[in-house]
Specification:
alpha+beta, 7-stranded antiparallel beta sheet, two-stranded antiparallel sheet, about 30% helix, elongated
């Protein structure tokens, strides 16, 4: 065949495209177990971090098993529909395996299926960890909020992002921001209010108590006001938070 002919060039290009596609597909399939393992490790590391336990890829699994009390999936009524504890699953799905993005989409669509909750222990203290997911300015932001045993006071938070602006929205991952949440409360007078992130500072607000708000990052209002941090903007949040709270009282949609 004439190597300079159009037919040869077309056949050669087609073969190369198919060959490269096969190689890439094979590589993706071969690496998928490792990618899945890395995602699991990252999730465990972040959950452990929300209770003050440092971990890496080599220690995450053992430390997670050590500090986990139980994983819970709750429905729109705040009822436990699935639990995982001591290696035993009651129900159909582990909270660890819930796709939070899909769960929150369903919640916002009033088609609530399942929301995850993690109960963990560190140094004799019990913590309730709520995974978070929402929209930043340029992409998704996500993280965990850990509540003390009173199920009201924030013990810690950690956040992550894919594409927020360095020096602005990207600073949600830094201790200077996350530490602002520590000691804040998600209830006021027995009513769920979440923790608001306030542009201009919580001290300048007359309708939000300091215990229920923090100062936003200057120049990153859109990121700070994402659904991730304003959990109360999700229609599901009331029953979700109430379901783990001992502070449910008159007026609370529990």
């Amino acid at each position: 065949m004439n190597k300079n002919s159009n037919s040869y060039i077309f056949i050669y290009a087609s073969v190369m495209v198919v060959l490269v596609a096969v190689i890439l597909t094979s590589a993706n399939l071969a690496l998928k177990p490792l990618q899945d393992k890395n995602k699991q490790n990252e999730k465990m590391i972040n959950l452990l971090g929300s209770i003050g336990v440092a971990a890496d890829a080599t220690t995450a699994a053992d430390l997670y098993k050590k500090h986990l009390v139980k994983e819970v999936i709750i429905n729109e009524k705040g009822e436990e529909i699935s639990t995982f504890a001591n290696g035993e699953l009651t129900g159909t799905t582990r909270a660890f395996d819930v796709n939070l993005k899909t769960a929150l989409y369903n919640a916002n669509s009033k088609n609530i299926t399942a929301m995850p909750l993690f109960v963990m222990n560190n140094n004799g203290e019990t913590f309730y960890i709520i995974p978070l997911f929402g929209k930043g300015l340029w992409g998704p932001i996500y993280g965990n909020i850990s509540l003390d045993s009173d199920k009201n006071t924030v013990a810690a938070v950690n956040f992550g992002h894919d594409s927020e602006t360095p020096g602005l929205g990207a600073e949600i991952i830094l201790p200077d921001f996350t530490n602002r949440f520590i000691g804040k409360q998600i209830f006021k007078d027995d009513k769920f209010v979440s923790v608001s992130v306030i542009k201009g500072g919580v001290a300048n607000q007359s309708d939000i108590d300091a215990i229920n708000g923090i100062d936003a990052i200057s120049g990153s209002t859109l990121t700070c006001n994402g659904d991730l941090i304003h959990a109360k903007r999700n229609s599901f949040s009331y029953s979700y938070h109430c379901s783990i709270s001992s502070n449910c009282g008159t007026g609370n949609p529990c």
